[in-house]
Write a structure and sequence with these properties.
The complex is a heterodimer of chains A (114) and B (115).
Chain A lengths: L4 E3 L2 E4 L5 E6 L6 E7 L6 E7 L2 E5 L6 E5 L5 E5 L8 E8 L9 E2 L3 E5 L1
Parallel strand pairs in A: 2-11
Antiparallel strand pairs in A: 1-3, 3-8, 4-5, 4-9, 5-6, 7-8, 9-10, 9-11
Chain B lengths: L2 E3 L4 E5 L4 E3 L2 E3 L5 E8 L6 E7 L6 E3 L2 E6 L4 E6 L8 E9 L7 E2 L3 E6 L1
Parallel strand pairs in B: 2-12
Antiparallel strand pairs in B: 1-4, 3-9, 5-6, 5-10, 7-8, 8-9, 10-11, 10-12
The chains are: A mainly beta (114), B mainly beta (115).
Chain lengths: 114, 115
Amino acid sequence: DAGVTQSPTHLIKTRGQQVTLRCSPISGHKSVSWYQQVLGQGPQFIFQYYEKEERGRGNFPDRFSARQFPNYSSELNVNALLLGDSALYLCASSLAWRQNYEQYFGPGTRLTVT
Amino acid sequence: AQKVTQAQTEISVVEKEDVTLDCVYETRDTTYYLFWYKQPPSGELVFLIRRNSFDEQNEISGRYSWNFQKSTSSFNFTITASQVVDSAVYFCALSGANRDDKIIFGKGTRLHILP
């Protein structure tokens, strides 16, 4: 069975631009969460979607938005990119929408903002 | 507020040695969940264990073992007879039991297993 997939693998953008990251969860998983992992730090929670509804939002500015599609795949959008947005963006899927359940992570999208 | 502290930033051991990764947490909740994840160079986090606050039994899975001590708010992870493939960053994480509680990760410990 396929695990969580993310695209693209790497991305280089310029300050002020917009970016869209994509995630496909494990088949049967209805919950998708997004995390930002800055170099040398642990992942930080950005959003969680379950059954196409936002179930949680971390402490990130409104430049960050996300959505979940009927097939449970998800997109994370970041507008007006800043240098500080450079990070590994991880997507995780889960059977349950509570975050105290086991989550399965994708390989991430490495975003570099120049 | 909840917090996870992994004081060891980086550890290097020679293959076949045992190594323990420390995790100390802070929470006011009486019910909570603790996790360990492994992040190999490929990037994805790999789930290792989930433990709830009411289960203080130590757990062993192959070469991996976990020591949960509520009295010291610690959830330490030991790899016995380490192998080069164990080289990775290991994260300890904490989540409350309420439906809206989110998971909080520590900063991670980078483990180098030297051949």
